[in-house]
Write a sequence for this structure.
């Protein structure tokens, strides 16, 4: 078989089904490709449920390990990211349930602290003034999103920040397409229009390369 270059993961040169087939055939080192491709998306989704950074990383790692051990059950006609996100959501809900903070996702209103601002690592800017302005904008936006009830926040982050399709979101959350649209519309209504326009910037809730490396290395040691 042709050798796969891990570095190609960033450009998505390697087809996902090929990677998965070869992992299942024994090349477990290739799982790093799937981990690195999905770190940002998984982080953003889990952060919709959990606030503590260490807790988020634990859930990410557990989700990757569970996905690896159950990989033989994965339907190759589906998207791995959607399947992984579902595992991540279930793991997040399990943490919240253990804390006694959740009964059912549709009834759960989860507001975070006003001063809980996500630190964006590895951010490179042209100059200090630009960096300060962008950081203030992101903090304002992140705080506004964090104040959304969890059922609106998860849908909003998946669609507007992570750019998942409505169908993917419906599958991941196990709700109807109509429900996804209603929640998304409500989320947009709640957020001020100016903040909503700013939210299209991809750096919102950035996971960061250094943390990506740490999570990836930890997962690969565990499998």
């Amino acid at each position: 078989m042709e050798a796969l270059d891990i570095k190609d993961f960033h450009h998505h040169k390697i087809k996902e089904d090929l990677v998965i087939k070869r992992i299942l055939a024994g090349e477990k080192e290739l799982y790093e490709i799937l981990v690195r491709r999905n770190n940002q998306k998984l982080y953003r989704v889990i952060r919709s449920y959990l606030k503590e950074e260490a807790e988020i990383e634990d859930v990410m790692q557990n989700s990757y390990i569970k996905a690896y051990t159950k990989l033989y059950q994965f339907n190759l006609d589906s998207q791995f990211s959607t399947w992984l996100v579902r595992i991540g959501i279930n793991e997040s809900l399990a943490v919240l349930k253990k804390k006694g903070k959740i009964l059912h996702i549709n009834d759960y209103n989860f507001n975070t602290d006003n001063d809980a601002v996500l630190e964006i690592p590895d951010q490179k800017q042209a100059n200090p003034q630009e960096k300060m302005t962008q950081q203030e904008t992101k903090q304002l936006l992140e705080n506004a999103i964090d104040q959304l009830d969890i059922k609106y926040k998860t849908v909003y982050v998946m669609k507007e920040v992570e750019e998942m399709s409505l169908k993917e979101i419906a599958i991941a959350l196990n709700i109807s397409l109509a429900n996804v649209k209603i929640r998304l519309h409500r989320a947009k209504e709640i957020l001020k229009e100016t903040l909503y326009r700013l939210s299209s910037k991809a750096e919102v809730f950035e996971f960061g390369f250094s943390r990506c490396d740490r999570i990836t290395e930890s997962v690969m040691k565990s499998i």
Summary: The first helix runs from residue 16 to 24. Residues 118 and 205 are 7 Å apart (CA to CA). The two ends are 23 Å apart (CA to CA).
